[in-house]
Amino acid sequence: MPPAAERVPWRWLAAGRASRSLVLVVVFVALLLDNMLLTVVVPIVPTFLYTTEYEGANSSVAPAQTEPAPPALKAPPSSSMFSYFDNTTVTVSGSTSAMQLVNGTEISLPWRPPATSPPPPSGCPEGEEFLAKENVRVGLLFASKALVQLVVNPSVGLLTNRIGYHIPMFIGFVIMFLSTVMFAFSGTYTLLFIARALQGIGSSFSSVAGLGMLASVYTDDFERGNAMGIALGGLALGVLIGAPFGSVMYEFVGKSSPFLVLAFLALLDGALQLCILQPSKICPESTKGTPVFTLLRDPYILVAAGALCFSNMGVAMLEPTLPIWMMQTMCSPKWQLGMAFLPASISYLIGTNLFGILANKMGRWLCSLIGMAVVGTSLLCVPLAKNIYGLIGPNGGLGFAIGMVDSAMMPIMGYLVDLRHTSVYGNVYAIADVAFCMGFAIGPSTGGAIVRAIGFPWLMVIIGVINIAYAPLCWCLRNPPAKEEKIAILSQECPMQTKSYTTQKTLRDFPLTDDSDVEVENAE
């Protein structure tokens, strides 16, 4: 082989490592895998636990409770009945037919079984008390991922500031692969809980390092907004195909099949990271980043983080409670439990890609304000559905609105750091991920308990009203102040207006006059 031909793959590899687009592809696939694993368990876990624990326990008890067959020679029970029609007494037998004497003529009456409670409709699960308790258990299982991620995120933010984004990104892939394989072969609630918690560690590494890497390679605010919209499209696509994919594969192939497919996807992502990201390369930030606690004291960052938290808390509460509510009220088969989330996923995919561009033009604060109001309204409409078709409108509006909030708030987090702090992004995206995690930790864990206490409709009312009440706070992000020395390095075409303030007083010209104080105040 000629030397020039041998160098072609290395040239392509070197060009790929210098390409921002391939970095975007790597982050897209990582978020896709994380959120497919996040949602693929939503329709599987409730029905899997019901099948293995409730039906399994009842099937083991049933043989011991079988009633003996009635003896063939035993005389059927009989009773007397007085007829007011012809003043005769008739003996009614418990056999398949009874003989009745009417005016000297015997007629045969069919035997009727004793009245019993009607069986449940076809497809509706039994065990109402078990399903009520399962709301809490499934909620805690789903929340374990976010709770672990909540604890790990600050450490990952500090780690990315010290060694760069490449190694944490690869660590996230390895942990995510182990979690996926563990999901495939777990047969008990405890093992599923451990696999879900392990996923939280891998997700923390992947999301914080991935978003921070995008913010560092896309320095222009407009380009960063577009890149974040595309990356969140990977998140949306994972949410889009996760729940329907999981429900269909579980119904027709088996529990392990969707997780094995995701494990193969994780291997592809790992190979792509090895080629593009050089995970053995340590690239510490040249500038020391702003500490996490300093960023947490910034009210504008807190408002943006709160919008991310509460908007995503709504769908986080739906994940464990909606499938069980559908099993109880709609008698839905397994495949419908995941398909109910399909409208939300499709509209979220449309919203993130559409408002990744539009939010920059209309104002990201306004985009997030409208989005949170629509989230609240959609959640209020969910309990009105009588069948799966009635969920299309509310879930579609919910996904579209969350896409508006996410695609507006993720670039705002990076912009606020550029505007008010040091332009190092690991810590601020750790805070953004913490906001997500708080929504997905508080939502499922409290949602199951609230449903058991006051019912599913009231849960939707509570979280819907919270989102509508929080929406006006997004107006605060319309005009965030910035230090004067930071304005010089920002793009002047950014639609977000800024105020400036200085830490020193304006120097006054000599000689001083009586009106000089007034002039200084007007200048400020």
Automatic annotation (TrEMBL):
<feature type="transmembrane region" description="Helical">
    <location>
        <begin position="365"/>
        <end position="385"/>
    </location>
</feature>
<feature type="transmembrane region" description="Helical">
    <location>
        <begin position="424"/>
        <end position="443"/>
    </location>
</feature>
<feature type="transmembrane region" description="Helical">
    <location>
        <begin position="259"/>
        <end position="279"/>
    </location>
</feature>
<feature type="transmembrane region" description="Helical">
    <location>
        <begin position="171"/>
        <end position="195"/>
    </location>
</feature>
<protein>
    <submittedName>
        <fullName>VMAT1 protein</fullName>
    </submittedName>
</protein>
<feature type="transmembrane region" description="Helical">
    <location>
        <begin position="397"/>
        <end position="417"/>
    </location>
</feature>
<dbReference type="InterPro" id="IPR020846">
    <property type="entry name" value="MFS_dom"/>
</dbReference>
<feature type="transmembrane region" description="Helical">
    <location>
        <begin position="300"/>
        <end position="318"/>
    </location>
</feature>
<keyword id="KW-1133">Transmembrane helix</keyword>
<keyword id="KW-0968">Cytoplasmic vesicle</keyword>
<dbReference type="GO" id="GO:0043195">
    <property type="term" value="C:terminal bouton"/>
</dbReference>
<keyword id="KW-0813">Transport</keyword>
<keyword id="KW-0532">Neurotransmitter transport</keyword>
<dbReference type="InterPro" id="IPR036259">
    <property type="entry name" value="MFS_trans_sf"/>
</dbReference>
<keyword id="KW-0812">Transmembrane</keyword>
<dbReference type="InterPro" id="IPR050930">
    <property type="entry name" value="MFS_Vesicular_Transporter"/>
</dbReference>
<feature type="transmembrane region" description="Helical">
    <location>
        <begin position="201"/>
        <end position="218"/>
    </location>
</feature>
<dbReference type="GO" id="GO:0005335">
    <property type="term" value="F:serotonin:sodium:chloride symporter activity"/>
</dbReference>
<feature type="transmembrane region" description="Helical">
    <location>
        <begin position="230"/>
        <end position="253"/>
    </location>
</feature>
<dbReference type="InterPro" id="IPR001958">
    <property type="entry name" value="Tet-R_TetA/multi-R_MdtG-like"/>
</dbReference>
<dbReference type="Pfam" id="PF07690">
    <property type="entry name" value="MFS_1"/>
</dbReference>
<feature type="transmembrane region" description="Helical">
    <location>
        <begin position="455"/>
        <end position="477"/>
    </location>
</feature>
<feature type="domain" description="Major facilitator superfamily (MFS) profile">
    <location>
        <begin position="23"/>
        <end position="482"/>
    </location>
</feature>
<comment type="similarity">
    <text>Belongs to the major facilitator superfamily. Vesicular transporter family.</text>
</comment>
<feature type="transmembrane region" description="Helical">
    <location>
        <begin position="338"/>
        <end position="358"/>
    </location>
</feature>
<dbReference type="GO" id="GO:0015842">
    <property type="term" value="P:aminergic neurotransmitter loading into synaptic vesicle"/>
</dbReference>
<dbReference type="GO" id="GO:0042910">
    <property type="term" value="F:xenobiotic transmembrane transporter activity"/>
</dbReference>
<keyword id="KW-0472">Membrane</keyword>
<dbReference type="InterPro" id="IPR011701">
    <property type="entry name" value="MFS"/>
</dbReference>
<keyword id="KW-0325">Glycoprotein</keyword>
<feature type="transmembrane region" description="Helical">
    <location>
        <begin position="21"/>
        <end position="45"/>
    </location>
</feature>
<keyword id="KW-0770">Synapse</keyword>
<dbReference type="GO" id="GO:0030672">
    <property type="term" value="C:synaptic vesicle membrane"/>
</dbReference>
